[in-house]
Amino acid sequence: MITPQSVWHHLKLFLKYGLIGICFTLLIGLGQTYLTRQSALSTEPPRILSQSPIVDINTLIQQGQRYYKNGQFTQAASLWQEATSQLADEGNQLQQARVLSYLALAFQQLGKWQEAKDAIATSLNQLQSLPNSPEKSLILAQVLNNQGHLQLSLGNAADALKTWEKVHRLYTRLGDETGSIGSLINQAQALQSLGRLREAFKSLTQATLHLQSQPDSLLKFTAWSHLGELLRVVGNSNYSDPNWSPLKQYFKLDNLTNLEQAKHLLDKSLTLAQKLENPQAIAEAYFRLGNWANDTYNHQRSLYERTRPSLQNIQPVLDAVAQAADYYQQAITRSNSSLIPIQSQLNHLSILLNTQYWLLNQRHWSNAQTWWQEKIEPQLPNLIQIQTQITTLPTSHTAIDCQIQFSQLLVTLKQIQQTVSQNAAQFPQLHRHIFWQKMDTVLTTTFDKNKQIIQQAHDLDDRRSEAYATGISGKLYESNQNIQDAQNLTNQAIQISQSIQAWDIAYQWQWQLGRLRKSQGKIEGELGAIAAYQAAVNTVNTIRPDLATLNPDVRFSFRDEIEPIYRELIDLLLRDETPSPQNLIQAREVLAQLQLAELENYLQEACAPSTPALIDQIVDEHAPNTAVIYTILLDERLEVILKLPQPSECKDITDDKCQQCRDVACNVSTPWRVSKINPSHSKSATHPTLQHHRVKLSPRQIEETVDQLRAQLTNPQRSSRYTQEIQNTSQPIYNWLIAPFETQLKTNGINTLVFVLDGALQTVPMGVLWDGNQYLVEKYAIALNREPQLLAPVPLSQQPLQTLAFGLSQVRSDFAPHQSFQPLANVEIELSQIPSDVKLLNDAFTSQALQTQINARPFSIVHFATHGQFSSNPNETFILAWDKRIQVNELSHYLKSREESLPDPIELLVLSACQTANGDTRATLGLAGIAVRAGARSTIATLWEVNDKSTTDFIRLLYQQLTNSTEPMSKAEAIQMVQKEFLKNANYQHPYYWAPFVLIGNWLSLFQG
Hints:
Layout: H1 4-7, H2 10-28, H3 55-69, H4 73-90, H5 93-109, H6 113-128, H7 134-153, H8 157-174, H9 177-193, H10 197-211, H11 218-234, H12 244-251, H13 258-276, H14 279-305, H15 315-334, H16 339-361, H17 365-376, H18 380-391, H19 397-422, H20 428-431, H21 435-459, H22 463-479, H23 483-499, H24 503-519, H25 529-550, H26 552-561, H27 563-573, H28 581-603, E1 612-614, H29 615-622, E2 626-633, E3 638-643, H30 648-651, H31 659-665, H32 679-684, E4 690-695, H33 699-713, H34 720-737, H35 742-747, E5 752-756, E6 781-785, E7 789-791, E8 803-807, H36 827-832, E9 838-841, H37 847-854, E10 861-870, E11 878-880, E12 885-887, H38 888-901, E13 906-916, H39 924-934, E14 936-942, H40 948-962, H41 971-984, H42 991-994, E15 997-1001
Parallel strand pairs: 2-5, 5-6, 8-9, 8-10, 10-13, 13-14
Antiparallel strand pairs: 1-7, 2-3, 3-4, 10-11, 11-12, 14-15
Helix pairs in contact: 2-11, 2-14, 2-16, 2-19, 3-4, 4-5, 5-6, 5-7, 6-7, 7-8, 7-9, 8-9, 9-10, 9-11, 10-11, 11-13, 11-14, 13-14, 14-15, 14-16, 15-16, 16-17, 16-18, 16-19, 18-21, 19-21, 19-22, 21-22, 22-23, 22-24, 23-24, 24-25, 25-27, 25-28, 27-28, 28-39, 33-34, 38-39, 40-41
């Protein structure tokens, strides 16, 4: 069973987010400080709480403190050992216990983990034998504080959390506010390591709120910088934190995105560090800002990749890299320790190399050539140098983490080399670069060092680090084409990961094993690539809800580290020209899981709809005239699968023992573990309901066609000439998706098509596809789904439907959230023409009114006639209310209370004036996100902002069809009916007016579910 503890461990935290922060806290101290009873700013030596102060011992401790802060841990340990010995001679067990805990910190930094544990254990044993007193309680808190850091460094975050909770209680009982605040910050570190990010956020906000009234200090700097770090990790999901609202006002963070909020706080922490004139704090502030810029870089890359080809701009991506490089360089030059420079250099090299590889994959040949010459080449000497610097680090988790990250740098370099080699004509000089000759030496050294760190991780009893180090070594061998060694290490990494139930890293090595088997041509069977890929997908599915909420990396790296696993499995399943029925079934299932994973990653929250049903089930049981069309985009081809209704003779096969036989014979969706078809049944039930077609097209070609069509559809010129252009552009898409199946659709009496679309095709209104004579909507009612499951149909009573309607006809020109939007003059007419029970217009339509009314009674239809936007960025997906922009995650917060008091889902959500973000090829993620957050069975929305008057007419006709309970028609048919009426109207014939209205989710009649 997956647990948060095994999902997000200190390893990834150290690699990117908290390595420097955690080590830095050892230097500046938290609470009562590690090395002194005084505040974090004190320069006085620790007080020896005895009746006869011993000056020499005080001097030893103070000198040890100075050595420790300068990173001279051996000297610090030596002095503290001497102090411990003198205190033992004096019989001062109380102070000896405290100094032993300092000594444990020095041993920890030296990688002497057993000595560190022994020192802490001895310290606690001595305290246990002493009578209770305020002094004992104070020193016990200090010792436990240091024990917590030792536990966290050893990977025992759960134990560290428990320890720091004890520390918090002790300091609270002592009335020590500074110590109490410090323990809260420590708890946040442990919670972050455990993946409990929102709890970590609450702990930090509580600490920060208490620090508001206190003078500037390193403790305040630590709280601000950690809070800034967590803000970019947690995102905009902090509505339930009571401390967050006053802090947003204090730091002036309203109306900022989570990345902007993080930047604001990190800038303030830098300013505070500069005010305190603390070089180490300044260096850490720059390091954290570098990580923030790294996230900005990933955000800009994502934005570029999801923007229509004609609107793409690569410069913001490169600017973000330059900003990150500047911050990391500042951290390197200002640090007085060896750790921050190494980590900053690793992160700097990582972003530079990742950008180089990305430019190559995007086929930006000129930019890639320039990037290598100006950015990578000057850094190559640093790459060699840092390898040496890592070897000087003492045996520790820090050294292991740095070596793992260095190995990943080499993997990326090998990928760059291979891509350059494959495109040598574009890069003749780079292809022959002298550095590639040096790579063999670097790799040999790295392979040897990796063997050492694997053993070190084993000796430290850190099985997670051992699994990760083993797996990354296998990945490096893979990149070097040493398949056998790669496979051996990968298998070992999988075994270690599984033995400790570390599923969050196990899937990476299962995926790696799949790639290795595929490279050897081993595809089928228990030892084939498909089996390994399937294991990886199963593992990701197991931890997917946790990944969505707990792993900050996945938010930006989903398309690089999660999505390819699903797509590469589908590619293997559909590799044959005529895939088997079982493979078609499995490919659809994998597509369903990919789209659900993508949606959860988008929402940063697990999706858990009640009583979901497969589309197949609804088609076979409730909609015999409906067919489903799935599209899957792979590297150089488009796969199209048609699901037809199950023939009645298939339903007549009732032998339960042969249920799987029946399902496979009739191509019904079943679990993947399918037995061989019973020969007697395969002869009597040969009615394939799955059809397959392949088109040799790259995703880029499809994007360019879709881009052209979208531009034509929204072109303000709407004469017959421009209509002809739309028909000419949409006809190829019709030929890809529909033409191959025309005969089957007619033979089976299909009148409704449900599309499960992939990639850029999601932004195309399918009704506009032209067959040469007419639009698709003239022949079929149409619905969309993001994945092949939806809320199961439940018959409604014949009571009148209750409708809740919101509208915004006016905009506040002096109100920032309303700027860039125009008034919707016809909204009031629209609301007057729909049969709504409650209408809230303009200043009555506030976020609070929405929250109140949505929970007042079980409305079947919720209608929004207001501006809004659907984007693949949650921060840019919203509906506009009178008082604010209600973002998708905030809408979720409003609707959660409805789920508790009114468990019945909304039957229909209507978004009549919203639109997909301009140029965003994945904007329907936002549309699907709003639909899911509303818990609606069906959603009707527009893909672009439509003429205000025509929208009003469309909505009026639509409600007439939807609410006609005497002759109920499906929701898809109701939309089709209105669209066909518009085609007859000379004023509305152009697709601009009728095509953008789409139905997502359950397409059946409102009275049928």
